[in-house]
């Protein structure tokens, strides 16, 4: 018979994955699995149940089995904590410098802030967990805050990207050609879920 | 010890083969010993453009597989003292030669020639990797079209990744009257994007079509503007400083003369 219960781990900890099946069988299998494991899980934390959608009654029942019988604490880990897990160093944090032009077909990825001393040409990609600064023309694709930091920004001396992404928001160049080309450096950031582009030297 | 120069573009049909033939012939005309190598195995053209198709006995695949000696595979161009062609195989494909073999071949050729000019196939796959394997320098050729410039940009990145830094740029098929009207990218736009040094600009010229079909490199055409452009490019390859040619066609002869005499 196919096992419906499995213990799995990710960077948050251990979770119990439950495949779709009858609740009674799930309960039985969970108990036998834990019996097999003996003391292995004793005193450890399980973060959640995943897989099959459980209603609250079922979930509580399983929880009490795990907690009372086997001494495993179930942290009711919520999804919120995961969202807080993105790169925080956009004010001050690790930064990579690229001293060359990023050309078509090249992709620079970094889990921090990224500074390109050169251009990013159309077809090239720069992706960073933090801010992106291009000290030249940005004509390719830039994705700042790619692991979810919506406060990340993209700045360039000449900001003309084919596509601009910040966190989960994607913006692209308008289809009509008569977009005013700015003569000065600009910065793109997110305000109320919209990518906002403005000069960062206000006097200009 | 000679120098191996690869001529490449990424995009097809921008003029790699024409440029290879003309630069090769141009350098030979200036007294250099030159071999032009067709690395476009399976789609050979360089022999046709040079008018040497009917003299092919052995090809590049025969040489790397040691079916014949190096000297046997080279075709001497009778019109230009010092110009040789190493033709591609037509019945094989790009995998018939490995980058390592190509590197060895280029090293062997370098011993005997001042310049080894390699005509790269279009694309970025093995044919391209083969063509650049033995090169010391690269020339990237593009036309004033956004797609060709984009591919050139990609190629420059790939060349740099293989250690071929600072390639030189040839802009082919420019039409000055269209640039003036604002209907064509101008030279500055392209240099701005690609950020490499310009080796030369070749105007869009009917003479090239005619000479290609006849199998006579346009570089020998004393009248055609494109012939002059190629002559200037070969001089620049030899290290001479030649100013960019005036491509304005609607200029009167009088103003041209004045420019010549008074330098203004």
In short:
The complex is a heterodimer of chains A (204) and B (264). Chain A is α/β, with parallel strands linked by helices and 204 residues long.
Low-confidence stretches of chain A: none
CATH topology of chain B: Rossmann fold
Largest sheet of chain B: 8 strands, mixed
Number of strands of chain B: 8
- In CATH, the architecture of chain B is 3-Layer(aba) Sandwich
| C-alpha end-to-end distance of chain A | 72 Å
**What is the molecular shape of chain B?**
globular
Largest interface: A-B, 15 and 11 residues
Low-confidence stretches of chain B: none
| Mean pLDDT level of chain B | 93
Q: What class, by secondary structure content of chain B?
A: alpha/beta
- Which strand order do you get reading across the main beta sheet of chain A? 5-7-9-11-14-15
Q: How much of the residues of chain B is beta strand, in percent?
A: 15-25%
Alpha-carbon Rg of chain A, integer: 24 Å
Task: Explain this structure.
The complex is a heterodimer of chains A (204) and B (264). By secondary structure, chain A is of the alpha/beta class. Chain A folds into two domains: 5-81, Transcription Regulator spoIIAA, CATH 3.30.750; 95-199, Pectate Lyase C-like, CATH 2.160.20. Chain A has three helices and 15 strands. Chain A has helices spanning 23-37, 56-70, 79-83; strands at 5-10, 13-18, 45-51, 73-74, 95-98, 107-110, 113-116, 125-128, 132-138, 141-144, 154-159, 163-166, 169-172, 186-191, 194-199. In chain A, strands 5-7-9-11-14-15 form a six-stranded mixed sheet, with no helix packed on it. Chain A has a five-stranded mixed sheet with strand order 6-8-10-12-13, with no helix packed on it. A four-stranded mixed sheet of chain A has the order 1-2-3-4. The radius of gyration of chain A is 24 Å and the shape is elongated. Chain A starts with a strand and ends in a 5-residue tail after the last strand. Chain B has 264 residues and is of the alpha/beta class. Chain B has a single domain, classed as P-loop containing nucleotide triphosphate hydrolases (Rossmann fold). Chain B has an eight-stranded mixed sheet, with helices on both faces. In chain B, helix 1 crosses helix 11 (225-237) and helix 5 packs parallel to helix 6 (126-133). The N and C termini of chain B lie far apart (42 Å). The mean pLDDT of chain B is 93. Chains A and B meet through loops of A and helix 7 of B.
